[in-house]
Amino acid sequence: MTLLLTAMVMLTALLLFTAIFQGLFHSNRRINRRMKKYLDQNDQRKLGKKKFSFLIEMQLFRSRVKEKVLTKQKGDRLEQMISRAGVTLAPEEYVMFQWFAAMLLGGLLFLIASHILAAAVGFLLGYNLPKFWIRKKEKQRLWKFNDGLEDIIMTLIGSLRAGFSFAQALKTVVDESDAPMKEEIELLLKEMQYGTSMEEALEHLKERMPSEDLDLLVQAVLIQRQVGGNLVVVLEAIVHTIRDRNKIQRQVKTLTAQGRMSGWVIGLLPFGLSVILYLIQPDYIGTLFTHPVGLLLVCAAAVSMIIGLFLIRKMTKIEV
Q1: List of long-range contacts for 269-278, beta carbons under 8 Å, 24+ apart
Q2: What is the phi-psi region of residue 43: left when phi exceeds 0, alpha when psi lies from -120 to 50, beta otherwise?
Q3: In the structure, how many helices (H) and strands (E) does the chain have?
Q4: CB count in 10 Å sphere of residue 243
Q5: Burial class (CB within 10 angstroms; exposed 0-12, middle 13-18, buried 19+) of 149
Q6: What backbone torsions phi and psi does residue 205 show, to the nearest 5 degrees?
Q7: 74 Cβ neighbours under 8 A, 6+ residues apart
Q8: Which end of the chain has fewer CB atoms < 10 Å from its terminal CB, N or C?
């Protein structure tokens, strides 16, 4: 009965959080869609006064959060991080998402454990959960970008050999590539069309996508534009370098697979055993979270696990 009640509370909190998230974070997109339909004269439905007022209030609330919580430096840093991840969130929306996730997870753990320490742990986890998610999306997008960089350079080489200029070769890349490569190169071309020099646009691309392989490409193009030379020959050398590096990275990943799997097993084993023991004998393991000595042991175990996982990660992470 307790588990059923807890599950119902968690489901209710999740639905409430989703409703608030949709109302706060997508209100500007609703207004934009509504304005687009109104300008196209394809939508004859009228927006209700209450709904319109609600959307305006949400926009004002987001503006107040941006003014009071975000500084210029922090806002730029968050915007760059979110842009690298390819997520359609504004910096103030990301901050509100952090606080909502922190309150939700902290409240749920407090309902489950009925202890203020569990609420504090849940609050910290919920506050940092959006950051972990954004970082994961950023790594996935960067990995996908690097994975397609070799083919893109080959497309540039073919276009340059056919007599195209470098800008025309980039346009060919946009036509033949997929996201995120297409999005980044398209943004590069737009910056150049709006008056930004090619050197500055390439530097902006390198800031948005911090890749060593891309840095080689950008430096080669910048040096060629300054001192001249055959860009095709330089790009072919870069392609060979990227291929050799990817080959070594795959070999290293294969050789360190066992160590990384050991880290996952060691990290998840205590949690799995704790859940199994709780289901079998709740009173036996419950003492760890109620007695002061038990709480001290749990904290010591958590610190030891973090140190061990950090050491395993350092040993299995080899830079190529």
Answers
A1: 270/301, 270/305
A2: beta
A3: 14, 0
A4: 11
A5: buried
A6: -60, -40
A7: 91
A8: N
90 close to 102: Cβ distance less than 8 angstroms: no
Query: How distant, in Å, are the alpha carbons of 7, 8, 33, 118, 305 from that of 103?
Result: 17, 17, 31, 12, 26
d(CA 207, CA 46): 44
Q: Tokens 């994975």 — which residue?
A: 147
259 vs 68: CA distance, rounded Å: 46
User: For helices 181-193 and 166-176, what crossing angle results, to 10°?
Assistant: 140
Whether the bond into 210 is cis, omega within 30 of 0: no
pLDDT tens digit string along 34-78? Answer: 555 555 544 445 555 666 565 566 666 666 666 666 666 777 777
Kindly tell me the sign of the dihedral angle through the C-alpha atoms of 28, 29, 30, 35. positive
Closest CA to 69 of 94, 95, 90, 89: 95
Which residue has tokens 């307790």?
2
pLDDT of 108-126, one tens digit each?
Answer: 877 777 778 778 888 888 8
Tell me the C-alpha to C-alpha distance, in Å, between residue 35 and each of 10, 38, 42, 62: 37, 5, 11, 20
Three-point CA angle 249, 252, 256, nearest 5°: 140
